[in-house]
Each structure stands twice: as C-alpha cells, then as structure tokens.
C-alpha cells in the first residue's frame, strides 16, 4: 500500500496544477518531522544572523534555507549528509536524516555519529536519532566526545558550543584575521568554496596533519557555515589548525608566516584530491614548485603543466584522456604548473616546475587565454614522441597531432596493427563512477585489448566528444542508459549491453558494426532496423573472478541499487523472513536497516563475496529480461565459483548450466530459498568445471579477440586475427 501511495505521489508532482500544493504539503511535512526530532539549536541559529524560535527556524530552513547554507545544529553538516542520500537534490538533509536509517548516516566530520549509534543503541530510536540523543546529552552533562572509538576525546560542551557559535558568526560576518606563525616544515593551505561539500577536504586536512605532522590553514569563503563550524571545531582537537577567511593573497600570506625551510601545499577550491596526494606533493616540492595532473570534471586532462609555443603559453595534453599522461612516466618538467592545487618551497627557487603525472587532482576546468612568455618553445615533439604522436602544427591554443601506427605480434604468432581504441561509457568519471558497473566493465575490456597489443583509453560520457577524438582509430560505445553517436574518422562499434528498449534505427544506422548481448534480440533487431546486428554476449574478467579455496558461507547476498522501485527479488524474500544481506545504495525505506550490510562494496571485494556466498540473488530490468539480455553479474558470480538464483532469461540454462537456478514467479523464488540451497546446485567440483568454461568462453579476452578481428577488417584489411 505504501509503495502505491509513493508512486501516486511522485506522479502527481508532474502536474503543473498540483505541484505548488504538493510542494507546500512537503514543506509542512518536513517541518513537522524536524520539530519532532528536537534538534534545533536556537542559539546556534541566532549566530547565523537572526534570532528565531525553533519553529520559525525550521520554517525558514525548509522554505529554502537548507539550500543557502543555513544550519540548525552544530553537529550536522547539510552537504555532507546530502551526499549519502538518494533524494538529496529535493529534500532537506536534516529531514531525510530524521526519517531515515539514522544509525548509518555520518552527520559531521568532527563527531562520529555512526560510532555513537553503536555505543548507544538506544539512541537510534531516540528523537532525532544519535544526533538528537548526543546533542541533548551534551547539554545536560556538559561533556561531549569528539574522538573515535579507539581514541576518545572528551571536551566541555560549553567550549564546543562557544566555538561553534563564534564560527557561525564569522561565516556570516567574516573578517580578515591575522594568521598565526607556522612552525612545521609542511604547511597545508586548504581553500574551501562556498558551494562545495567541505567534508572531504576537511578530512584530508586532518589526515595530513596526523600523517605529515603538518600545520593546517583552512581558508573558507564567507557564508559557508558548515565549513566554518566544522573546521573551527577541528581546531579544538588539532591545535595546529587555524581557520581564516579566504582572500586573493592567502597563499602569499601563509608563506610569509611559515619557516623559510618549509613547503606550502595548496589544495585549491573544489579540488578532489586525497591526503596522500597532498603529502606526495609536499615531499616533491623541496626544491621547486610541483603540481598534480589537473583532470577536469569530464575526466579529460585540463593540463599537465604550462608549455611555451610562439611566445605564448599553452596547456600540455589539454583535452587528452588521462591514459596519455600515464604513458609519459611519473613526472615531467614544464615552464609552469597549472591548476589551483600545488606545492612550493617558501624560499624562492630557480629549479624548474614539475607536474607529477602519477598524482591527480580533479577540479573544474576554466577557459584561459594564452599568456605572453619569454620562455623558448617547448620541445613538444620530443615530449609526445614516446606516445607515438607527431606534431603537425598548431590550431590556436592546441597542437594538431597525428599518431604513428605500429605492428605487434600476438601470442599465436600473427602480426597485427596496434590501433588506438576509445571505449565510451555512460558512467561519470572519478569517485562517483567507481560505483558504476560500466566503469569496471570497460577496464576489464581495456586490459584484454592491451594484452593484444592495442592502445586503449576510456572516455566517461561527458568526455565522449573530447577535442582529441581525431586520434582514435576505433571506438567501442558500450551502450547503457544513454545513446551514443558514431565517431567521425574512426571505425565505430556499438555494443548494446543494456536498455535494448531504447535503441532506435537512427542510433544504429551509421555504426560500422553493431553487437548486442542477446541472440534473440540481435536476430529480431536486424530485421526491424534493416541492418546486420551480431550477437556478442556479456562476459567476465577471468583474471579477477576465479574460484577461491575458502569454504562456502551461509550468506544469501544481493549486490545492487534499489533503483527507486520495488525489486521483488529482494523485498519478498526479506518479507518472508529470509536473511538477505544487501550491499548497495538507496535501500533505506524499502527494506529493514538490519538487511543493509553496506551502501556499496569495492569492486575488488566482489570475487570473494560471490565465490563464498551460499547464493547470490540476481534480477533483470524487465526490458532486458524480455529481450534476452543476461546480466553481467551472473558471469562474474559463476566465474568466481559462485551460485546464483535469478529471474528467468532465455539462455541462462544453456550458458551457466546448474550454477544458476531460475524462477518464474516471486512465490517460486521464496520457495526455492526456503529449501535446502545445497540441493539446488551441483557439487563444488562441477561448479569449478562450469567456472572454467565461463572463464574461457565468456572472458574479456575472448570478447577482445572478436572486437579486434572486426576492427582490423574495417581499419586495416591487410591484417586480421585468427
């Protein structure tokens, strides 16, 4: 019933007439939940500009304050919590926390709410969850623990509250405070913008303070309440932390207050960079300025450093995929570093600037005009020669290149061209993309193609039309939920691995070769679209997924997102009392909290999880199931020596034998799982035999061989594989 109400409510939002009314109802509902949580700190709210009652503060917050930096409690960071929620772009984070699985949500970087929930289980059911329980307890007892489970740090609440209020006041009325002298040989300056989530840079700063014994200066933009408060409270735990207003001259000001022998490391605004990268920069900058490879938000290189051409500056490797930088080695000398993240010695140096190509900072790219320079022209041809690139000329700020093609000998003795392949995926770049199966699928395929002597780069969806696509010989578009177009001047392959219901005749028309992960769909689509579509099933990474020697557990496992819809393969077994262990995001509100083991799992941990589980549950999108597209997960599970239960898709039995059992209805699924699971599947020896066959016939290496043969026929008919 509740699910149907949710679906109707979401549909009603699409009505222009009903939307304003529903928005008003939403705000009332949000306010009610937050007020009932009893977590509004009115003194803290007053420090942000206006003294309000708790009710008035909540009303201001839900009417839009949550989008403009308003905070209702010093132990709650709006943007940090939003990153952990599925509906963060629409609802206030404090409301989502109040009605969510409060024991799993990290509310602040200066107070461990998850550890608190474990230490005080009753707090989970208290008003406002662990946050409300701890805040009210601190006010009553006068103490709060800002440490960790292993290293508690008890602080007086009056002092914590005073610092939080002072920081909130400074965020709304900042002044240019003097900097304290630094004493360490490494000084980190972390600049935090008003519109960025401050949790990650603050945690990185804290880690660097511990690991490198660095002094830390946090330079915060005005009206960034979360950042001001959290950073100021960190200074209670770390005396060598100071928080100041960010200014244009902040780098010079910090350097002026540091020892002459020190290195200043600058973390630029909105830069996604780890503490270890910052430490590595510091260690590399003793004699001269050093910067990491600057990667834009679309996943392409923004700059590998400043070079000179024709008395003007240019960005090295701008618009290239990051794989090109990786083939140049670990570092390169340039006439100047690029980007807002860098390290430099306090004392001026005549040493050349360096870009560490093995270190990455992801930050927004910005258009900048070439600047005049007296530096001689950089030997770009010499730099790019190891990549097989020749410089043909310059087109404005970018060089025009060509790629030399060479021959490689394969293990079977045949000699073929080494082509440049671009694998196009729908996944975003960076940390977010790590949770996408497409990312790891592309990496597995790329590794297999490289084992065949090919050069391979991977483009996230936003980089699919990067400025250097003209260098690619072959494009493989891994079709997921978004469409792709053929790439001009490249042999273009479309491999449809999901969402077959979205494919149109226009999309497939101009690709040189089209593959699909279903025999039946490929046959019917060939007729429907009046062009050949060949079958190329999904596959597994046989170098990662292999049977292990450990014993099989009794765990029933599901890995995947909730998709925002009821997934009966998970919901119904749990409702029947079957203990399913779920790994994946967005399950809060759909299943009990005890069933959610984690909101994700590292891809590197999947082989052991799949291979040791009693059974892995799997299901398919209806469109994929009906079209005969078998989930990639089943290939991984069986390759790892695992056992799976899945909804029925044509071809599963023929492909996986007894390693995968299928069901036709939810009732049948529950009945299977309530019985003896061991009796459903072959013995371990037979499972290993099936695994060996899957790892041979359905590996990335097998698929790469097929793709290479097709590409060579299209690009270089004089050579072919097999």
TrEMBL record:
One Pfam family named in its UniProt record: Glyco_trans_1_2
InterPro entries hit by this protein: YkvP/CgeB_Glyco_trans-like
Superkingdom, natural source: Bacteria
All copies of domain Spore protein YkvP/CgeB glycosyl transferase-like, residue ranges: 570-709
Protein name, per record: Spore protein YkvP/CgeB glycosyl transferase-like domain-containing protein
């Amino acid at each position: 019933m509740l699910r149907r109400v949710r679906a109707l409510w979401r549909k009603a939002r699409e009505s222009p007439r009903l939307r304003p009314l529903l928005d008003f109802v939403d705000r009332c509902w949000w306010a009610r939940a937050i007020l009932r949580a009893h977590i509004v700190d009115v003194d803290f709210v007053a420090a942000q500009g206006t003294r309000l009652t708790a009710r008035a503060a909540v009303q201001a917050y839900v009417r839009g304050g949550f989008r403009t930096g308003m905070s209702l409690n010093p132990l709650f960071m709006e943007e940090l919590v939003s990153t952990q929620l599925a509906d963060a772009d629409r609802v206030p984070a404090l409301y989502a926390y109040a009605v969510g699985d409060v024991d799993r949500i990290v509310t602040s970087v200066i107070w461990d709410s998850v550890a608190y929930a474990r230490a005080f289980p009753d707090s989970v059911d208290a008003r406002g969850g662990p946050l409300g329980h701890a805040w009210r307890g601190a006010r009553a007892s006068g103490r709060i623990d800002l440490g960790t489970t292993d290293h508690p740090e008890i602080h007086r609440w009056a002092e914590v509250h005073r610092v939080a209020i002072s920081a909130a006041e400074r965020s709304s009325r900042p002044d240019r405070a003097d900097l304290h002298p630094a004493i360490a040989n490494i000084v980190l300056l972390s600049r935090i913008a008003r519109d960025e989530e401050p949790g990650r840079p603050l945690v990185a700063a804290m880690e660097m303070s511990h690991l490198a014994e660095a002094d830390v200066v946090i330079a915060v933009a005005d009206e960034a309440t979360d950042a001001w408060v959290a950073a100021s409270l960190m200074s209670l735990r770390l005396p060598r932390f100071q928080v100041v207003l960010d200014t244009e001259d902040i780098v010079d000001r910090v350097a002026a207050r540091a020892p002459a022998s020190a290195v200043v490391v600058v973390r630029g605004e909105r830069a996604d960079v780890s503490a270890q990268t910052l430490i590595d920069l510091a260690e590399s900058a003793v004699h001269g300025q050093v910067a990491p490879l600057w990667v834009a938000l679309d996943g392409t290189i923004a700059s590998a450093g400043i070079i000179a051409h024709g008395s003007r500056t240019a960005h090295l490797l701008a618009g290239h995929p990051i794989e090109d930088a990786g083939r140049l080695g670990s570092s390169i000398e340039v006439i100047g570093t690029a980007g807002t993240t860098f390290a430099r010695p306090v004392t001026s140096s005549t040493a050349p600037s360096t870009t560490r190509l093995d270190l990455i900072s992801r930050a927004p790219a910005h258009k900048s005009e070439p600047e005049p320079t007296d530096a001689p022209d950089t030997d770009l041809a010499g730099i790019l020669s190891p990549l097989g690139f020749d410089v043909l000329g310059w087109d404005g700020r970018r060089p025009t290149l060509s790629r030399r093609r060479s021959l490689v000998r394969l293990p079977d003795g045949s000699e073929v061209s080494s082509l440049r392949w671009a694998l196009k995926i729908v996944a975003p770049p960076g940390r977010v993309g790590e949770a996408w199966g497409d990312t790891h699928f592309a990496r597995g395929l790329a590794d297999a193609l490289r084992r065949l002597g090919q050069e391979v780069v991977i483009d996230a969806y936003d980089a699919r039309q990067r400025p250097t696509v003209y260098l690619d010989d072959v494009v493989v578009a891994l079709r997921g939920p978004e469409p792709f177009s053929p790439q001009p001047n490249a042999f273009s392959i479309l491999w449809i691995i999901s969402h077959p219901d979205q494919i149109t005749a226009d999309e497939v028309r101009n690709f040189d070769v089209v593959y699909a992960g279903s025999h039946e769909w490929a046959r019917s689509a060939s007729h429907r679209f009046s062009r050949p579509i060949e079958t190329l099933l999904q596959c597994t990474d046989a170098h990662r997924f292999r049977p292990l020697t450990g014993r099989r557990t009794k765990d029933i496992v599901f890995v995947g997102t909730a998709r925002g819809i009821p997934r009966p393969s998970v919901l119904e077994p749990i409702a029947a009392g079957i203990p399913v262990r779920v790994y994946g995001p967005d399950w809060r509100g759909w299943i009990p909290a005890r069933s959610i083991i984690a909101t994700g799992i590292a891809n590197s941990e999947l082989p052991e999880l799949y291979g040791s589980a009693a059974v892995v549950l799997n299901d398919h999108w209806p469109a994929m199931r009906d079209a005969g597209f078998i989930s990639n997960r089943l290939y991984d599970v069986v390759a790892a020596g695992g056992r799976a239960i899945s909804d029925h898709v044509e071809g599963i039995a023929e492909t996986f034998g007894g390693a995968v059992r299928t069901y036709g209805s939810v009732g049948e699924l529950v009945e299977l799982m309530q019985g003896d699971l061991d009796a459903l599947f072959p013995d371990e020896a037979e499972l290993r035999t099936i695994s060996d066959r899957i790892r041979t016939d359905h590996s990335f290496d097998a698929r790469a061989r097929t793709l290479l043969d097709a590409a060579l026929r299209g690009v270089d008919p004089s050579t072919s594989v097999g």
